[in-house]
Amino acid sequence: MNFPIILDIVIGLIFIYLSFSLLASEIQGIITILLQWRATHLKKSIEELIAGELHIDNDSSQSNPQLEKTKKLTNSLYQNQLIKNLNFSGGKGPLERGFRKIVQSIGSLIHTITGIEKIFGTEKTAPSTIPSNAFAASLVDTLQIKESMQTISEYKLEDFLNKTLVNIRNILYELNLEGPKRKEMIKDEYKNLVQEFHQISHNYKNHLASLNLTLDRVLDRLNLYTKTTVKYVPAISHSEFSRQMTLVRRVLVNPQERQVLIADMEPSFSNLLKFWGKLVEMGESAEEKLEGKKGRIYKKIKDMIDVLPESLQKSLYILAKQATTKIGETGDAFHQFHKEIEIWFDNGMERAAGVYKRNSRGVAFLIGLTIAIAANVDTLYIMNNLSKDSLLRTTISSYSEQLVKNADNNLNGEGIEGVKAEVNEALDRLELPIGWGQQKNDNTNQNQLSIYLAGLKRLLGWIVSGIAISMGSNFWFNLLKKIFEIKK
Predict the structure, then answer these.
(1) Distance between CA 180 and CA 230 in Å, rounded?
(2) Which of 308, 334, 312, 314 is nearest to 323 (CA)?
(3) Integer Cα distance of 409 and 232 in angstroms
(4) Lowest-confidence range among 73-77, 162-166, 205-209, 417-421?
(5) Contact call for residues 267 and 153 (beta carbons, < 8 A)
(6) How many angstroms separate the CA atoms of 29 and 462, rounded?
(7) Residue 52 Ramachandran class (φ > 0 left, ψ -120 to 50 alpha, else beta)
(8) Half-sphere exposure of 409 (CA within 13 A, CB side)
(9) Residue 291 has pLDDT above 60, yes or no
(10) 117 Cα distance to chain centroid
């Protein structure tokens, strides 16, 4: 057998594989839409990313609290508006709505028959792709990390103001003031200062002033208090009172000390991380620390951590430490933490994409094998027929060459989509060696071994065809183009 004949046989096989690959792609596409494979795989992949080393199993999740937390958190993320906005439902016309209802009804019927879990809960659909920045933002928003940072800052400001008031009260106590009138007037000034501090703290909590402006107001109020109160202090104690108040105000006046104070008080992820680290170190004993003003902060952060599976707690804590290591300034640490989550998500989805591709190839092979058996596409039998039938080889080669030319001359840029109609037309005109009426075996004079070997041969032919069909129409069409380029 010379090379041109072998080449024509190869072209004949590729044409048949291309024809059935187009059919297989359509079937797999329909199944993907009906069962929402992409969206389902994405949500399960996010659950596995959150669960870490834990394995997502519908049965075990009922008894494993960590897996229950994983599912609840994932559902919360999907309810976040940032992710819900990614769930495009398509057109709003009656035709589009009718088509979606039909698809959803068929999908629900398949889920009911097969017993496959409806992973989207009450929702009918979900996004099939989620950008990493949307995932990171929704996770941060769902866990209310920014709110926790602000709460810590508010507590630290309040704690600073209270300590300042205590220091002033101690200063007044040590002055040994005499005279009820003098004491009453100093007491009134102190009460005014307390009220002013409360108002300053209230304004900061309601975002009416920045932290820097808030500290400026505190300094101005302390200056005014010193100037007013010194009038009621005995002359002998003026210098001592002024000196003590200068020490109180120093942290607000000295640029270096003020910078340290702001870094410790501002809403930053590094401060949240410190509280978080203390809770992790305290473990179960943290329950005893949740009393008092500082306990409110611990409780808020603990409530946030309690909704996190242990694996995600460790992952986020590591990501947070990486962020603070890369960015020394507290103002940028949160943004770096956001980026670290994005990178972590991208790496996880890259692995998930590999799993999806492997699963898709497995499904494609099953579809291809089913088509090969249903249509009796036996590669070994086809090769045998093509090697003997020169007219069939020539006809298929001619159709294939014309198919490639038409595709190259197609100005619409439709690619493989544009050749479907031509392939179907060619199949109507060709009598290919496929189908159950093609192979006729005379088993009268054959022994059992020969019949068994013939069955194995046909099975092998189906398997080869199933593998070939699963490789996809694009693969075979591009290979067909290369062969005709070689022939030229």
Answers:
(1) 16
(2) 334
(3) 99
(4) 417-421
(5) yes
(6) 22
(7) left
(8) 6
(9) no
(10) 21
